[in-house]
Amino acid sequence: MNGMRNFLISTFCIITLLGSTSRVSAEIANRLVAFVNNDVITLYELEKKIAEMTGRTAKDIKAQDEQQYIQIRQTILDDLINEKIAQAKIEELEIKVSEGEIDSYIENIKSENQFTQEELIEALKAQGLTYYKFRADIRKDLERKQLLNYEVTSKAIVREEQIIKYYQDNIEEFKKTDDQVYLAGIFLIQNNSDNEEESAELTKKGEMILSRIKSGEDFGALAKEFSQGPGADEGGELGAFKISQIDQDLADILKKLPEGGISDLIKREDGIQIIKLIKRDEEETKSLEEVRDSIYEKLYSEEIDKRYTSWIEELREISFTKIVF
């Protein structure tokens, strides 16, 4: 009898201990981290959002890099606060989304992904979502879109002069192709870069070749006679290059040369170059008409972001928020 009594007491203690541990875990998970007007954000909500946004648990991020964890936690907590404030505004404006609107949105998703209803549900299960939760998330998204349209999007304007100014200020962005140059070269190789005597002789030889070119002798013939580099047998022809592919020093020299122009001696660690610019294909620039729509979309998106930031900051100023980490 005493053995049975002791067994029951031990069993009761274990159950009590487990129940106490469960309550402690629940209390930690449900610990409040922020107040937002009449609403709250719990540690559970925050850590769940961190996992959704990063694909990692808060615990793993903190273990790997505590400073990064603090930054991520603050950023996502700010997002959650903004969501709560936006939700309060949705309720204040009595923004409603009908079941029909949600159905229509889901049908579009099914059509774009070629899903049947059963396939959609299976895809949601694979992501750990129920169909009920999926519909609830869509309702929230559609409500927020209506709110943003009412408070932000409908007030965003991009004027024609803004489009023109952006085009003029960012003309490099609208170039269709990079400048392309066709080059020929004479290369005189220096075997020992530390040998000053060899360097002087090579420079003297290069100056002689350059003088003969300037006197009217054929570049190709001289390349065949003297060049020790690629293309020598073809009169020094090197082919076509995009300016962006050429080292900056040579690119700067080529910019100053006319077609048919010859560079001065270009000294390298391994020798001397004389470059001829055979031909230049200058890049084309897209017209304003070609890029007007893309500029508008970019400026419109920037205007939306700017107005949203301003709008949410104004809402936060008149909202009660308190972080209680």
TL;DR of this structure?
With 325 residues, the protein is α+β, with helices and mostly antiparallel strands. 60% of the residues lie in helices and 13% in strands.
Strand content: 5-15%
How many strand segments?
7
Side-by-side strand order of the widest sheet: 4-3-6-5
* Proportion in helices: 55-70%
| CATH class term of the domain at 178-281 | Alpha Beta
Biggest beta sheet summary = 4 strands, antiparallel
Q: Would you give an account of this structure?
A:
The protein is an alpha+beta fold and 325 residues long. Among the domains are: 26-92, no CATH class; 178-281, Chitinase A, domain 3 (Roll). Helices cover 60% and strands 13% of the residues. It has twelve helices and seven strands. Strands 4-3-6-5 form a four-stranded antiparallel sheet, with helices on one face. α2 crosses α4 (66-92), α3 packs antiparallel against α4 (66-92) and α8 (160-169) packs across α12 (288-318). The longest helix is centred in the last third of the chain and has 31 residues, at 288-318. The two termini are 52 Å apart.
Features:
alpha+beta, Chitinase A, domain 3, four-stranded antiparallel β-sheet, 12 helices, disordered N terminus
Blueprint (SSEs and pairs):
Layout: H1 2-29, E1 32-36, E2 39-42, H2 43-54, H3 58-64, H4 66-92, H5 99-113, H6 117-126, H7 131-151, H8 160-169, E3 180-189, H9 196-214, H10 219-226, E4 237-242, H11 248-255, E5 266-268, E6 271-281, H12 288-318, E7 321-323
Antiparallel strand pairs: 1-2, 1-7, 3-4, 3-6, 5-6
Helix pairs in contact: 2-4, 3-4, 8-12
